[in-house]
Amino acid sequence: MATLLTETLKDRYAALQAERERNWPATQLAANAAQRQQLVDRFDPANVAQPGDILPPLSFAEVGGGTLDLDRLTADGPALFIFFRFAGCPACNIALPYYADTLHPALADRNIRLVALSPQQPDRLRDIKTRHGLPFPVASDRDNRLARLLGISFQPDDRPSPPPAGWIGEVTGTNDWELPQPAALLVGAGRVVQWLHVSPDWLARPETGNILRWINESQS
Q1: Tens of pLDDT along 186-200?
Q2: pLDDT > 90: what percent of the chain?
Q3: What is the spatial distance between Cα 33 and Cα 30, in angstroms, rounded to a whole number?
Q4: In sequence order, what are the residues at sequence separation of 6 or more whose Cβ sits closer than 8 angstroms to the Cβ of residue 207?
Q5: Superfamily of domain 9-219 in the CATH hierarchy
Q6: Which among 94, 118, 99, 53 has a CA at the least distance from the CA of 209?
Q7: What is the C-alpha separation between 197 and 217, in angstroms, rounded?
Q8: In this structure, are residues 43 and 140 in contact, taking their beta carbons and an 8 Å threshold?
Q9: Which of 100, 111, 152, 175 has the highest local Cβ count within 10 Å?
Q10: Average pLDDT in the 18-35 region?
Q11: Cα(98)–Cα(78) distance, rounded to whole angstroms?
Q12: What is the CA radius of gyration of the chain?
């Protein structure tokens, strides 16, 4: 059964934003808000993968070694993929442990695999897995292959050349600006998309209760 918590994911993001408003300069706050709003304004649900779409037989390098592939993950039931940006992303470090506490146990009861995916290299993803003791696989969506197929990847408009020290391609090890928008993807047998929920504002990700409701509706 899922762990019952009185604090919602929205509550945790509100606390993160409040901390930033206390500590960040106004220009940094404005730039962060503007990029999130831009992604929200540009998002069109018709441009992302739809239920019934069939995915190719992709595989993913898992933190700690080994390979995960879509066919095996969905052989005995659907699999839920949580897309996140990178191991050092503050919002991702809130979402993944929250899902570990509240979502993973409920999915395990239903024989639904939970996998977290980021384009970051596997060795760099190890940090978020070990820091929170995540009980589900964390793996690399190399070159954003699946994110691109789903239509959920993006690049910021402002891409200085040459890139500054510590830019996103350096952090992820991809040498690229591209990141996935946070998303939850349910894939069934035959690599068939059952549903996809995208969060263009990375501080507005779905609560566990909503994810479980969407799963119930797709299985009914």
Answers
A1: 999 999 999 999 999
A2: 86
A3: 5
A4: 8, 9, 10
A5: Glutaredoxin (3.40.30.10)
A6: 99
A7: 14
A8: no
A9: 152
A10: 96
A11: 21
A12: 17
